[in-house]
Amino acid sequence: MILDIAIRCCALERLLFKPCIVIPVYNHERAIGAVVDAIVQQRLPCILVDDGSSPECAQVLDSLVSAFPDYLSLLRHAVNRGKGAAVLTGIAHAHAVGYSHALQIDSDGQHCIADIPQFLAAAERYPNAIIVGYPIYDESVPALRFYGRYLTHVWVWINTLSLQIKDSMCGFRVYPVASVITLAKRQKIGERMNFDTEILVRLYWAGLEVINMPTRVAYPSDGVSHFRIWLDNVLITSMHTTLFFGMLLRLPRLLARKWSHR
Fold first, then answer.
1. Coil vs helix vs strand at 217
2. C-alpha span between 67 and 192 (Å, rounded)
3. Are the beta carbons of 193 and 236 closer than 8 angstroms?
4. Whole-prediction pTM value?
5. CATH number of domain containing 166
């Protein structure tokens, strides 16, 4: 009886699987066209969030929406608020119009769009999990950025008491929309370069499982990076400190979860 109910619930969740793409955009007018073209070829609905871009980039986005009105919708921030804020705006819109899952991908062309079907297939199979990209880099990755990521990896492993999250900084992932909306209602989440790591740790704390998917990553195809070395490093350091004390408060629950997986 219980098994039958569980099977029916799983089948219902898959039946209700309705994914979309969310792309935060800030001054990537040279790369976004190719990204959108590749997504449209897969016939996927896509929410673009213009995060206070320049007039040149805004014009490119307007042209794309005009060219693909059946697949694209465009939201705008009047001023730049940060990647995390743009992603949350896109997910809130996805929730409002009935999408169950949102695949986040960056607008600079660094992610492998050909991997989208695999990520969505995993999300459909595990609808209550987060599907997270685990980067396989090519020779374009700067050595300092590559090795610098490991400091964040270690802090994430400490703050979750788990090795389940292989990489918390890759902006290519699938979120269960309802889980993000629930989290965002009760918790302020970092809105800039601290977003990708913080939301992943907090969703893990909330009980979601993480499915890691390997994916090829190149550094921005248009050569534009918005990482602010001093300010963003301060934000990331502050985030890790806050998460560490949050981990201490959740220590009994995290330890229980760790032992239950053994």
1. strand
2. 30
3. yes
4. 0.83
5. 3.90.550.10
